[in-house]
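re: that chain from earlier
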Amino acid sequence: MLAPKPRLRLTAAALLLATAAGCSDLDETPGQGLTRSDLVADVAAQLAGQASRTYEATYQLAGGETATIAQAQKPARAAYVYPGGKLLVTTDATTECRTAAKPATCTMTSPPTPTSPPPPAVFRSADAKGMVTPATVLNLLNRAVLDADLEIDQHDTTIAGRHATCLTLTGVDGAAARDFSTCITNEGVLGSFSGVLNQTRVEVAMTSYADKVADDVFEMPKAAKLIDRRGA
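^ sequence. v structure.
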């Protein structure tokens, strides 16, 4: 028989929250106290809310390279700039650009809709280059919510001047990364990620954050070769 996994370890602040709710047993059912699923679901919801924000964040990647995530509203659009590539998600198209060769090559596919957001596969190129995207981290957290045997450590920190809630999760069943750590800022922005994702070690840490975005971050590379597959 397998040995039982260690109980959830939380910071004093989280324990006070559980006590204020009238229960100090973190394994009790929802509605009777703070549970593992509650904690992960809260952080996942916080990250999901970033889709409605306007911001630009710069990240330090493993090996010393950098990446950028930018979002703006009205119209809604997002850009992910990483070593060797750029991914643009707008109301007109989802465009993946490969920038390692000159000229760059950009492939346009159908734009997302409210009922049909970009599939996880769209973000694999960025993930493969060491820039884990919010969509990937959100998918990992949503998988963790369903794991009743999950082990979690939680703490608060400050990243690039922003308060963040951090989780270390161990043994997430069926996820692309079974063991990982991530921090999400109060704004719902990805602050950091560390883990083995699809057999590749990924280390991401936000180094700067701004509530304003330069318009050119949403533009395709100059002189890029364009392949339009939106009608395919």
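The longest strand covers residues 200-210.
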